[in-house]
Amino acid sequence: MAHVELSLSEAFVPRAAESPPSATGIDQWCTTVATAVEPCLVIDVEMRICAASASCCSLLGIGARPESVGRPLLGVLRLLDFTAARGELTEGEIDKIPPLLALTSGRLARGLLRVQSGPAGEGDATVDAIATPLWEDGVVAGSLTFFSEV
Question: Mind listing the pLDDT tens digit for each residue in 120-142?
Fold first, then answer.
């Protein structure tokens, strides 16, 4: 029979070589995400993209990294529903997508998203998104989301 042990420890904040020692936690995550191979992104509390990996930009169809960083996530990401008509999500549904839910709830969030990753009707992607809030001084400062194509 398998044996599993769990322990709690302080939150892990990466120490990227390129980050100055005075960089905040979210800044360090941004440095890590910008060089990551996996599709991932960091947004701040204003829902602006702070960092995105190249594979994330490609998977979600949000343009090249320099073009997407600093822009509102919902300004570059077109979210679609799971109906055959592939309509845009309503505002109530958008609030529940993992990157935003992690910001508002302060908890881990996971869910499936359908995004338009190419010109209208030509390229849709269904992705599994797992998001966690990023904390600074006891307050949610952003969220980190990893994506996996389904």
Answer: 556 788 999 999 999 999 999 99
